[in-house]
Amino acid sequence: MDFVKHECGVAMVRLLKSKEHFQQRYGDAFYGLHLLEKMLVRQYNRGQDGAGIGCIDIAGRAPRVFQMKQEGADAVEKISARIEKEIASEREWGSSEMPFYGDLMLGHVRYSTTGLTGECFLHPFRHDHQGDNPESLMICGNFHLINTSEIYDWLDKKGVESNPQADTHVLLKHIAYHTWDKEGKRLNTETALEATSPKWDGGFVICGINTNGEWWAVRDSHGIRPAFWYADDEKVVVASEKSAISLSAGIDPSEIRQLMPGVMIKVNNEGKISFKRVIEQKPIRECVFERIYFSRADGGEITLEREKLGNLLAQHVEEIGNHDVEDTFFSFVPASARSAFLGMVAHFADVALPVDAQSLAGDYSEKYSPHVLLRKDGKKVNFGRLIEKGKALRTFISTEKGRENLVEKSYIKMIPQLPEGINRIVIVDDSIVRGTTLKSSVISILDTYNPKEIVVVSCTPQVRYPDFYGIDMSRLGELIAFRAAVNIATREGKGEILDEIYRQSKLSLEKKQRTKNFVRLLYAQMSGHAISEEIARMVTPDNCKAKIKVVYLSMEDLRMAIPDHTGDWCFSGNYPTSGAYAKICQAFVNYYEGKADKR
């Protein structure tokens, strides 16, 4: 329920046949461009700060480059309208040089992972190499690096100018530096990525196209960020989500493959596809939040995993209190928690997974009315939507604080009152990070239904550690689980552990000992149950009449529901890259010293 920034989304298209072929077969000479736009729209959930499209036409006498960016939540639609207007204008004048009439295309939807917004930060970024053989390179990416400042400093020492506030621009200049030697001779792209990508500490999928006719994408060696590809005799496509490719191109999901971590996919100027490992193989640590939160529910494996989360959480709900199922109303917020919510309802209704949502919830034209299912034993299971975000409000305000305030105020009641006999609300959330929205808005609204008890159920374990790979969870002191642990330690006279963590972290940052995640020492002082109880106290609003309880998924259940995504560092503190351990030490030092710095 807290405002958590999404990962960005990327999409790429490489046409392998002439535009005339697509005109004849599909009646659309701009087939590739429209496919790109569809994939970006399908990934709208990944970024609403803005979008950008890049296109290169290599079929003419000389390569032509097109680029367009747009701020705002409806950026893809506005870009499409602007492009269509340009095309119509050229046709009106009888021109054969149509804009965005290309063979190589890439696009990006952005959510800021640096806190900075504006058109100058939108992807793709472009580098124009001058010399005997001029060439243009465009890149975009779904990424966040821990060591962008180090790469910037390295480039600065080499005399290469880059914008330190725009991490994509730093990466672009890093790639360009290794693409041409000092004499301006062109090196191959594989060599450039072998020299650069192993130095990028973090999660990334970087995509590039150039006027030399090359189209490529590379994924980080741990697979932190997702990338999928598909190829046939007409096209090659890449996107952040499998469903974006499947739904946009009408492709069976079983034919879509993941890009292997540390591997580069490339299509050369002759349309030949190749793969090459450019980063040494490392343990796979795909981000678990991708399955819980980021990716759009696809009706397939992602949806089923989320249903399993809710099914397992239901058992934890049964363990607290002496309530009967008939006095409980089950609900959810936000929309990304819907599949887990249905999985929970299925457990209490004795319905097997996967869930047939239509059969379970009945007529969706009445989705805002309470639903009732009768179990085999005759008991009623009551569920439905109680609150929802206001549809008119969008979170594309330029400042982080402005976004947060808007989100907190955007929840509204969906039904006037609870069904008769209900005195407990169980509401499913995809994650509880800061707890601010719970206290300031969600619980206050739920309390107006006059239940005796409100149980907030998180689809994740307690978020105890910062994420340094792009999700906006980098200030340690903002995490409610951390604050709760500090409260308990202080109240129980164990405050000296904070001094010890600070001392150990400082020694590590001064290179006087091995760097570790010393924040784990704090959580070792207390049980997870005690932290949950403290969090429940912290999110209870003043004058709240209902008793508040908070239930978290266990790490064991997380593994059971989502076995293949082991990127659980926010919960376990087990980071995949060495740089993150220095970052967690710095984050604690910042907290202890009262600094507001993120990292």
Outline:
35% of the residues lie in helices and 20% in strands. The protein is an alpha+beta fold. The longest helix has 19 residues.
Architecture blueprint of SSEs:
Blueprint: E1 9-15, H1 19-26, H2 31-42, E2 50-57, E3 64-71, H3 75-92, E4 104-110, E5 125-129, E6 135-145, H4 148-157, H5 167-179, H6 189-196, E7 202-210, E8 215-219, E9 228-231, E10 235-239, H7 242-249, E11 257-258, E12 263-267, E13 273-277, H8 289-294, H9 301-319, E14 328-332, H10 338-348, H11 357-361, E15 371-374, E16 380-383, E17 387-389, H12 400-408, E18 411-413, E19 424-429, H13 436-447, E20 453-458, H14 480-491, H15 496-509, H16 520-523, H17 528-539, E21 547-552, H18 555-561, H19 569-572, H20 578-592
Helix pairs in contact: 2-7, 4-5, 5-6, 9-10, 9-18, 14-17, 15-20
Radius of gyration: 25 Å
Distance between the termini: 24 Å
Q: What class would the helix/strand composition place it in?
A: alpha+beta
Report the oligomer. single chain
Average per-residue pLDDT, rounded, comes to 89
Adjacency order of strands in the biggest sheet: 3-2-4-1-10-9-11
Taken as a percent bin, the fraction of beta residues is 15-25%
The proportion of residues forming helix, as a percent range, comes to 25-40%
Instruction: Give the overall shape, derived from the CA principal axes.
Output: globular
State the helix count.
20
Low-confidence stretches: 1-6, 391-408
Total beta strand runs: 21
Largest sheet: 7 strands, antiparallel
